[in-house]
Design goal:
Shape: globular
Largest sheet: 6 strands, parallel
Number of strands: 6
CATH superfamily: Flavodoxin domain
Strand content: 15-25%
Number of domains: 1
Number of helices: 6
CATH architecture: 3-Layer(aba) Sandwich
């Protein structure tokens, strides 16, 4: 065996051992939870379907992983204001993000005019409460996906915008390897049946797997 093959085999073995260790630690701690948030105003449509696909892929990584989808479609979430906490649907969402804090997070948004949805922006502004008095989401693995009306419809711009906010929480940004190094990019070209975008759905699956692997590794590191 030459040096290159030896190193490649060693790295692969090390990765497998790390993941197995993470699984054992997760078992002892009661499991690993990954939450997905669909930030489309259209409840149950393409963005929600894509986030659900990522969560399903994440759950298959290990039997100890539990997932939950939060679909913001149809919810009333007000913009942040100096007047204090608004009485809207956000409080119910907040409890899912801090009691306890999830071990992994996947956020999805449609691309509107090459930007995240207004609902996504408001949601990200409101979770600023998770930065005080401490950074509650720090080191939590986070993946992002975006759905556009064109194959190159601003999805990567939306992903970058969301990632910038998550970095302010000091979260651990996770991509999806090939074909989703930055995040999952999907194309709504089939009358809202996003599952027909095989390339895009593959990126969502890859993203879910990578977030799950990172969450398992972090669970192992914390034990």
């Amino acid at each position: 065996m030459d040096r290159r093959n030896f190193i490649s085999k060693s790295l692969a073995t090390g990765a497998a051992v790390t993941l197995a260790s993470g699984a054992a630690d997760a078992a002892r701690s009661g499991g690993v939870k990954i939450v997905g948030v669909s930030c489309s105003p259209r409840k149950g449509k393409t963005t929600a379907t894509a986030v659900k696909a990522a969560l399903d892929a994440a759950q298959k990584v290990n039997s100890r992983i539990k997932t939950e989808l939060i679909d913001l479609g149809g919810m009333e979430i007000s913009a942040s204001s100096a007047g204090g906490l608004e009485k809207d649907d956000f409080q119910a969402i907040l409890s899912k993000l801090k009691d306890p804090v999830p071990d992994g997070l996947i956020i999805g948004s449609p691309s509107y005019f090459r930007s995240m949805s207004a609902l996504c922006k408001v949601f990200l502004e409101r979770i600023a409460v998770l930065r005080k008095p401490e950074l509650m989401l720090a080191d939590v693995p986070a993946g992002v996906l975006a759905v556009g009306g064109y194959r190159n419809g601003g999805q990567e711009l939306v992903i970058e915008q969301i990632q910038c906010v998550l970095l302010c929480h000091e979260m651990m940004i996770v991509g999806g390897k090939p074909k989703a190094h930055q995040g999952a990019t999907l194309w709504n070209a089939y009358n809202d049946d996003i599952t027909k975008d095989e390339f895009g759905m593959a990126t969502a699956v890859q993203l879910g797997i990578r977030v799950a692997e990172a969450a398992m590794d972090m669970a192992a590191a914390k034990s």
